[in-house]
Amino acid sequence: MATSVRAERAGSPPPAAPPSSPGSRPRRSNPGGLRSTLYRWDIKAIPYVFIAPFFLTFAAFGLFPLLYTGWLSLNRVELGGDPTWKGLENYTDLATSEFFWNALLNTFTIGVISTVPQLLMALGLAHLLNYKLRGRGFFRVAILAPYATSIAAATLVFAQLFNTDYGMINSMLGWIGFDPVDWESSKWPAQIAISVIVTWRWTGYNALIYLAAMQAVPQDLYEAASLDGASRWRQFISVTIPSIRPTILFTIIVSTIGATQLFGEPMLYGGSLGISGGSGNQFQTLSLLMYEKGWMTGALGQASAIAWVMLLMLLLIGGVQALVSRRDRTKPRG
Are 126 and 236 in contact (CB under 8 A)? Predict the structure, then answer.
């Protein structure tokens, strides 16, 4: 009997596990634990930690001054005084101010007579440097030297060259029979002199930008144009210019923005009268007018309104660039 009972027990299946309660859940293994959680947080958070310094710096030195200046432009604020709410009065005062319209016109004219020759000469220099010239590496570095020169040094040198009494420019004009030109008190001569300074400083910089764009143009296009009998000038007009058109548009926009913010050259060129743009405001730009309103007369509200008008102008220029670029991208290629 004992033997049959043991055999019967040995062949019987194992006893079933007790049934679990309805509310209990099976335990799952947690191989990573705290380390796995920290790893997941590290993957998600570290990129934001890396870019946080930029956004914090921008918020402190970019966004906050922008918003604060916009608030000041809606108030009457004197240096050391409390702001008084004026709404859009500062902007309406600008619309009726002859000084504002004079500064706006000066900014436009100086921008045109400095940007157009500058970009044309930069295109020509880049075209010459694009060929295999002897010592072209030296010339590429040399044309960037004016850009590396400080604004103060360059402006003071040109102020001596354009001096009405003993400047070299008037001396050269006298050698060929012309009367001396008043390069400081006359409107157009003063604006031309300032434009020469701007052109001298930025031509080489734009030439290097154009040169980099020209070197990216496929040589097959030039070879095909050469086989068709196109001269170098025709290749430049029909191949180079269309190929670097986006770069040309970029330099036009950047140069226009720089002309809108022109400040150092006219202020240093005018000497003691530089802030007011000369004795008759003949070369006062928007930046100079903003500085004069804010720090010479103490009208921070009006200065802030001028700053926001300049910002809206720059946004308008950027919008025009975006529209032109979009039209070029969607334009069918023939």
Answer: no
Gap between the Cα atoms of 198 and 154, Å rounded: 9
Q: What is the mean pLDDT of residues 314-331?
A: 80
CA dist 17 → 6, 11, 13, 14, 194 (Å): 22, 18, 12, 9, 96
Cβ pair 285, 107 in contact under 8 A: yes
DSSP secondary-structure letter at 138? H
What is the C-alpha separation between 162 and 150, in angstroms, rounded?
Answer: 18
- Asked if residues 197 and 159 have their Cβ atoms less than 8 Å apart, the reply is no
Please provide residue 162's backbone torsions phi and psi, each rounded to the nearest 5 degrees.
Answer: -95, 15
pTM: 0.80
What span, in angstroms and rounded, lies between the C-alpha atoms of 250 and 325? 10
What b/e readout covers 148-176, taking b as 16+ CB neighbours within 10 angstroms? eeeeeebbeebbebbeeeebebbeeeeee
What is the token pair recorded at 206?
A: 């734009």
- The 10s digit of each residue's pLDDT in 176-186 is 988 889 998 88
Nearest one of 134, 129, 320 to 240, comparing CA atoms: 129
